[in-house]
Amino acid sequence: VLLRILYVFIAALMGMHFFGGRFDFPGEEKPRAHFDTIFASMLTVFQVLTRDDWNSIMFNAMRPQDAQSGVAWFSCVYFLALVIIGDFIVLNLFLAILIQCFLDAQPPPPPPPPTWGRGR
Question: What predicted TM-score, i.e. pTM, was given to this entire model?
Fold first, then answer.
């Protein structure tokens, strides 16, 4: 669980650095999922990791503020890396550790009974 929280925190800090203040679109209300504060950023990363409408968050990050910013391609890379690393690798690593802990907690199987010369 700590590994997952640490990943969300690091991804939220990266999102704040790259996308902080970029979700203020003129003439529109600010979307609920944004990267302006650490709390909102962590909630946004969690929403992306649960894959709940993550593509609209990515498209909002791709909307150009200025044509020369080059954020559109980087937002695709950021969100795809967030989903691939966070959802597939970190989650599977967490599940592998959990399953290994359950297997270590089980008592060892009893030894097989002796065969006393039944060999053919």
Answer: 0.73
